[in-house]
Design brief:
The complex is a heterodimer of chains A (116) and B (113). Chain A is an all-beta fold and 116 residues long. Chain A is built from no helices and 11 strands. Chain B is globular. Classes of the chains: A mainly beta (116), B mainly beta (113).
């Protein structure tokens, strides 16, 4: 079974440019999460999709960030325009939906974004 | 504020030795606590998941403990190997099921020969 994949692995862009990150979850996982780790800080939640719907986007820092999950499969996270403080590692995770019990989240390798 | 605090920040041990990492949390409500291992350049990988009713859980040479009353957890690594070098992250979930996770900053462990 293929794991969570993310593309690109690294991205270096200039301030003001646009970048789109992609996440392909494990096949059949309805839940998809975006997290971010900025240097020196802990990983923080950004957004949660259930299929194609945004279940929780309370962690999105501002309206320069736009996440989509068309068709409930892969997801994209666009940053436009990018600012220096957006630099960090963006992780995607996916999980099955369980009615009871603990749900395991499986993480991708992350995309390292550097804004210069 | 929901927080997860870990100690030490970093640790160096000799191969074959044991070590224990600590985690304190103030996340509320509390459903479960997880320990993840993150190798450099990789995503976090789950080691253990414990609900509030579980005191200990093992995964090979990794043993996690949980005291839900004092809101403390530990991860004990036995007979360390060079491949154990990684960041170990304590993570708390407020609810069961599919909810966002609250992460600690992690402990950076280096195992040397």
């Amino acid at each position: 079974e293929a794991g969570v994949t993310q593309f690109p692995s690294h991205s270096v862009i200039e301030k003001g440019q646009t970048v789109t990150l992609r996440c392909d979850p494990i096949s059949g996982h309805d839940n998809l999460y975006w997290y971010r780790r900025v240097m020196g800080k802990e990983i923080k939640f950004l957004l949660h999709f259930v299929k194609e719907s945004k279940q929780d986007e309370s962690g999105m820092p501002n309206n320069r960030f736009l996440a989509e999950r068309t068709g409930g499969t892969y997801s994209t996270l666009k940053v436009q325009p990018a600012e220096l403080e957006d630099s960090g590692v963006y992780f995607c995770a996916s999980s099955n939906t369980y009615l009871a019990g603990v749900s395991e989240q499986y993480f991708g390798p992350g995309t390292r974004l550097t804004v210069t | 504020k929901n927080q997860v605090e870990q100690s030490p920040q970093s640790l160096i041990i000799l191969e074959g030795k044991n070590c224990t990492l600590q985690c304190n949390y103030t996340v509320s409500p509390f459903s479960n606590l997880r320990w993840y291992k993150q190798d450099t350049g990789r995503g976090p990988v789950s080691l253990t998941i414990m609900t509030f009713s579980e005191n200990t859980k093992s995964n090979g040479r990794y043993t996690a403990t949980l005291d839900a009353d004092t809101k403390q957890s530990s991860l004990h690594i036995t007979a360390s190997q060079l491949s154990d070098s990684a960041s170990y992250i304590c993570v708390v979930s407020r609810n069961s099921g599919n909810t966002p996770l609250v992460f600690g900053k992690g402990t950076r462990l280096s195992v040397i020969a």
